[in-house]
């Protein structure tokens, strides 16, 4: 599984680094450094949000994984049925 604690910490560090680069770029007039800082801020925020989202849905993901491992044939049947329905919806015969 994903270690969300270290992902959140890395996101916070990257966001803080981005804020510093953004501020230094603004003070020195270096637009490239300022843009890099904004990108780092966005990347850090994205890591943190992904970790929060993963934490919120981790139990559901584990339940689905356990179901697939315990009942592989039923899972395969469900996937085949869903594929058939999608195929019928999108690829109807014209005639």
From TrEMBL:
Alphabetical UniProt keywords: Membrane, Transmembrane, Transmembrane helix
Bilayer-spanning residue ranges: 73-91
Cited SUPFAM superfamilies: Hypothetical protein YjbJ (SSF69047)
InterPro entries found in the cross-reference section: YjbJ_sf
Domain of life of the native organism: Bacteria
Keyword Transmembrane: yes
The protein's name in its UniProt record: CsbD family protein
């Amino acid at each position: 599984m994903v270690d969300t604690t270290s992902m959140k910490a890395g996101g916070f560090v990257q966001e803080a680094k981005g804020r510093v680069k953004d501020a230094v770029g603004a003070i020195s007039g270096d637009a490239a450094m300022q843009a890099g800082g904004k990108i780092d801020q966005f990347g850090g925020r994205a890591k943190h949000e992904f970790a929060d989202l993963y934490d919120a849905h981790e139990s559901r993901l584990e339940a689905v994984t356990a179901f697939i491992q315990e009942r592989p044939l039923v899972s395969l049947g469900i996937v085949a049925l869903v594929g058939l329905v999608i195929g019928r919806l999108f690829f109807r015969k014209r005639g």
